[in-house]
């Protein structure tokens, strides 16, 4: 714990000063130079700090900058999406969500609730399997076909008709169709969703709408899909520069 605390202190000190030499770090934190050397070497090897070959001073490394960039992207996509989801709820009078994928799960980043309550309502920060909601399927479809079947297997989707139907639907979503998930883990609630991608086609999030299954007739589904496409275009238009600039492998 002591070594971890010292490593964090060093990162915070370098972040504040932007550029510091070994002796300055040791002196400011009151850490023995030999201990400082060990911690600095570990942080450099891990990518949290970088050492300039000429000045021999330390600055923040690419790993820290990557973490900061991901945090800012998440904060920005939520801020961009909030007014769009508010308009979406007013337009269709159905509850709307912004979700992001984390591994084999989706995380609810924001929600706007309509006047009519659902049998179950996801809370902010709640997680679900990526295969259980339309938002998850929209994100999964953008990862690439090679990842689909392994993800379904890890999420417990049985091989056979159910997996085949989901794989066929993922192909449709990858080609631009609106993702759809019939009631499953969430009884009596169906969901529809579209992914939000940046200028490089990297998926940042998905915007989804949850509707009681008994009310989702063809006219309402068409209306929801049209409203989702408008919301997708509004958010994506403002989010072009956010997130990683290369698709993940």
TrEMBL record:
Keywords: DNA-binding, Transcription, Transcription regulation. The keyword Acetylation does not apply. Gene3D superfamilies: 3.30.450.40, Winged helix-like DNA-binding domain superfamily/Winged helix DNA-binding domain. GO terms for biological process: negative regulation of DNA-templated transcription. Transmembrane segments: none annotated. SUPFAM superfamilies: GAF domain-like, Winged helix' DNA-binding domain. It comes from the Bacteria. Residues 63-244 form the IclR-ED domain. One of its GO terms (molecular function) is DNA-binding transcription factor activity. Coiled coil: none annotated. Residues 1-62 form the HTH iclR-type domain. PANTHER family: HELIX-TURN-HELIX TRANSCRIPTIONAL REGULATOR, ICLR FAMILY, HTH-TYPE TRANSCRIPTIONAL REGULATOR RV1719. This is IclR family transcriptional regulator. It comes from Pseudacidovorax intermedius.
